[in-house]
Write a structure and sequence with these properties.
879 residues; FAD/NAD(P)-binding domain; 42 strands
Length: 879
């Protein structure tokens, strides 16, 4: 197949009659950043763009590859698709030849694409060792999504076949090797890290730091072998890896081996095309990222600057910005590589930045070491002990985000003060404008300040959107927030936290005010705490939620009924055609055959579309307003209750089968999930929240993608908080480990109610945790250590919620006044809405499209081929 003259689908090219063809080879993080930057610049509209990506996946976050083991799917790692909108993307095709004279790129699929400008972003590949047995089954590298998929599948298959946890070895103790070790440990594999040099992270930490790191990792149950060179991999009778042999003739049993011994630039395409290549590999580029061919550029790990390639994402992002600027007509130059790194492995923090090894002549070291606490910190200073040159932080990297931007600047305080334990506040001072705050995106302090003073940004989210600071790894967000707040304070500006024009208080302040005053109606609250008016669509539902949180107030009781959002107003979810969905609660996803029969009969009798949801329950679509009470009467009589799918409240507690059935389960996850769901059902909150309980580290319930996630351990339960899916997916953070069930539930009680009381309106738990003072550590102090002295109050409040809970639909069915609200028409309450029309598809009905309606209207506005509704009966009309 030849694509040379094929039309290019590009929204950039649509505004011009002629355009240059830009081809990007590679679809990784750096290529994604390049496209994102290029399309935001003036002059980019002249380009028509084709991207050639070897992997089947769209661009994804390779830095977060380890999270794939706890993610529901690869989609959670996907980067924003916006930079690829309108761009021709040859996914799953590998570029195999560049014809510089014809200016074409040919792929292994036979596509030939012409270019005017070519950008090579081919990245790197995992280096291989010349070790016998390298190709055995069970031997992996750790580089791509396919690699980690293979690792996960191998572990699942072999552990099942062997009937025991696997033994694993990671060869290579660098950044990626430690990531791989952490991933294996999280999957229940016994791990040994094998390092040929005398310490782990030999490129980032010195001998003392390496020793501290080793102790910390071994304390977490991982084994470490240093000064060990692997000479051979042994195989079993079936050709699977069975162990390692070292140069000292010692051996190590292993069911899985991961090699992580460095990377090599993917420069084979450039070599074959005759481009200049550095002696140690990599395509040679100038300070504008142009190669020896003026029409070809190189960025990321494949590019060599002064003979060196960089295996970190930050230098690649800088190159992407430079190349994008040059192609758009600018004159940017590559500023050099920031090789600062930060790693967190199983709770062990490590950071390295600047001249960490003190190579600068005359440099001085200031060291703080606490072997008992497992902390080692070193700052490298100029010979006058004033200017920061670099540093190493092991065990406590809390000051990394503050120190790294100060590289090359005078500290302005006693350097040792920056190395004090994390509970001692470090010195504060004015950060220089030129200091790089976000190394991933090369954003300086000046840019953040300008975003506030010139662009009008008033919060971290606005600064992120304006500057990209904090939009990658997120480690700089605390510092970004400090800078934003400092600039607002300098300008004498305050950010309004008012709920709306009718209430000058924030949601959290209003919650406390209502809790203390005991007011129980919107009118009273508005009169006492408001600033006049009748309320609005912002404050009415917020007050309704607060009242429900404080006293299990029914959403349709008296004045409350006028405050509710559309869904709460009828206790059902409004659908696109004006009908509603019904979702009965199925705690923990456990349901009896009799319960399934009832749901099936209800769906059949009322003509409802049925769909199993991601939360392990069944959604019934297509109910008319006047049918809701009849449907719920059938469900309530069968023992079901409201699933609160319509409310800002607990939705579901997802679970695996746990130790009850699964041979890998170590705790009864189903029972715990049911207990949690019945405990928190109906609890109104600032936003919906979900929970998950997994019975082992294999994480089948996807607990780390939930607001509250619980994962079983041999000793009890690990508790994670602040995760969610949706538009901005987040992985939950570890709050506490190895809790017994009683302590776990008490901790969740306090977490949930602290969130309910203090979060902003419509704020999910993930951003709430980020914005808390002290972040996850501050939250831990509140709910576990009672640092605010509110634990007893939170415990009592949860007890009241549990004691006073009553199913909202059961209460409604017992109240004629509430039932009167469920009428399609005031003067004909049982008359069906004639605007509803449906077609049959795959054995169920769905709403008819406009085209289907217009092509087959019969008496009463019924579309041909639709399931039509006439009074209480159903009639199927087929064309």
């Amino acid at each position: 197949m030849t694509e040379t003259d094929a039309p290019y689908r590009s929204d950039m090219a649509s505004s011009v009659s002629t355009s240059s063809h830009l081809v990007v080879v590679g679809a990784g993080m750096v290529a994604h950043r390049f496209l994102e930057s290029l399309r935001a610049r003036e002059g980019a509209e002249r380009l028509t763009i084709t991207v050639i990506g070897e992997e089947d996946a769209a661009p994804y976050d390779r830095v977060g590859l380890t999270s794939f083991f706890s993610a529901a799917s690869a989609d959670e790692l996907s980067l924003s698709p916006e930079p690829l909108d309108g761009i021709r993307f040859l996914r799953g095709e590998r570029a195999v030849r560049i014809d510089r004279e014809a200016r074409t790129v040919t792929t292994d699929a036979g596509s030939t694409v012409r270019y005017d400008e070519l950008v090579l972003a081919t990245g790197s590949y995992a280096a291989e060792l010349a070790v016998e047995g390298y190709r055995l089954a069970g031997v992996f590298v750790y580089r791509t999504l396919d690699d980690v998929r293979g690792i996960r599948e191998w572990i699942a298959q072999r552990s099942q076949a062997l009937g025991r946890p696997l033994r694993g070895a990671v060869i290579g103790g660098g950044l990626l090797g430690l990531e791989a070790a952490g991933a294996l440990d999280g999957l229940g594999v016994g791990v040994t890290i094998v390092q040929s040099s005398n310490r782990l992270l030999s490129a980032q930490v010195d001998d003392a730091g390496g020793e501290a790191l080793r102790r910390l990792i071994e304390q977490r149950g991982l084994d470490v072998r240093t000064n060990s060179r692997t000479t051979e991999l042994a195989a079993d009778a079936a050709g699977r890896v069975a162990g390692l042999r070292f140069d000292d003739l010692s051996t190590l049993d292993a069911d899985i081996v991961i090699f992580s011994v460095g990377v090599r630039p993917r420069d084979e395409l450039a070599r074959a095309a005759g481009l200049e290549v550095a002696p140690r590999g990599g395509v040679v580029i100038d300070d504008g990222c142009r190669t020896s061919d003026p029409a070809i550029w190189a960025i990321g790990e494949v590019a060599a600057v002064d003979g060196q390639c960089f295996g970190l994402v930050a230098p690649g992002y800088s190159m992407a910005e430079v190349a994008a600027d040059r192609l758009a007509g600018g004159d940017a130059v590559f500023p050099g590589a920031d090789l600062s790194t930060k790693l967190k492995l199983s709770g062990v923090e490590v950071a390295s930045f600047g001249d960490a090894f003190g190579a600068t002549p005359g440099s001085l070291d200031v060291v703080y070491a606490d072997p008992i606490a497992g902390v080692y910190k070193k700052l490298v200073l100029s010979d006058d002990a004033k200017t920061l040159l670099g540093g190493i932080l092991v065990g406590d990297a809390s000051n990394y985000s503050s120190l790294r931007p100060l590289l090359g600047a005078e500290l302005g305080a006693d350097p040792s003060a920056y190395l004090l334990p994390s509970d001692v506040e470090a010195p504060t001072g004015e950060l220089p404008d030129a200091a790089v705050v976000c190394s991933c995106n090369n954003v300086a302090a000046h840019s953040i300040r300008s975003a506030v003073t010139e662009e009008g940004c008033t919060d971290v989210a606005g600064v992120k959107a304006c500057t990209r600071a904090g939009a990658a790894c997120g480690s700089c967000v605390p510092l970004v927030k400090k800078l934003v707040n400092a600039e607002l304070a300098k300008a004498g500006r305050t950010v309004s936290t008012a709920l709306c024009e009718h209430f000058p208080l924030s949601r959290a302040q209003l919650f406390d005010a209502v809790r203390i005053t005991g007011l129980r109606s919107f009118s009273e609250i508005l009169e006492r705490h408001g600033s006049g008016g009748r309320g609005c669509d912002l404050c009415k539902p917020a007050v309704a939620s607060i009242l429900a949180s404080l006293g299990n107030v029914h959403p349709l009781d008296g004045e409350n009924a006028t405050l509710q959002d559309t869904n709460d107003h009828v206790m059902a979810n409004l659908q696109r055609d004006g009908s509603y969905s019904v979702v009965p609660r199925i705690p923990g996803g456990e349901i009896t055959p009799e319960g399934l029969v009832v749901i099936g009969e209800v769906a059949r009798d009322f003509g409802l579309y049925t769909k199993i949801t991601g939360g392990q329950r069944i959604d019934l679509f297509g109910a008319r307003l006047e049918q809701l009470p009849d449907i719920w009467r059938r469900l309530v009589d069968a023992g079901f209750e409201s699933g609160h799918a319509y409310g800002k409240s607990l939705r579901t507690v997802k679970s695996c089968v746990g130790s009850t059935w699964c041979r890998y389960g170590v705790q009864d996850s189903v029972k715990l999930a049911i207990d949690l769901e019945l405990r928190y059902r109906g609890l109104r909150s600032p936003h919906k929240f979900k929970m998950g309980v997994s019975g082992c580290a294999r994480e089948c319930a996807e607990a780390r993608g939930k607001d509250v996630g619980v994962i079983a351990t041999e000793k009890g339960w690990n508790l994670y908080v602040g995760g969610n899916g949706g538009f901005t997916p987040r992985h939950a953070q570890l709050l506490a480990e190895d809790l017994d069930t009683e302590t776990l539930i008490r901790t969740i009680d306090r977490f949930v109610l602290y969130y309910v009381r203090t979060a902003d309106r419509l704020q999910r738990t993930a951003p709430w945790v980020e914005e808390l003072e002290g972040g996850i550590d501050g939250l831990r102090d509140v709910v576990l250590n009672d640092s605010l002295g509110i634990a007893e109050d939170l415990d009592e409040a949860m007890a009241r919620h549990v004691d006073t809970y009553r199913d909202e639909w059961k209460a409604t069915l017992e109240d004629p006044e509430k039932l009167a609200r469920f009428a399609s028409f005031v003067n004909a309450p049982r008359t069906p809405d004639p605007s509803l029309a449906y077609v049959e598809e795959r054995g169920q009905r769905r709403p008819a499209t406009d085209a289907e309606r217009s092509s087959g209207i019969s008496n009463g506005g019924v579309a041909s081929g639709a399931i039509t509704i006439a009074g209480p009966t159903l009639e199927v009309v087929r064309s």
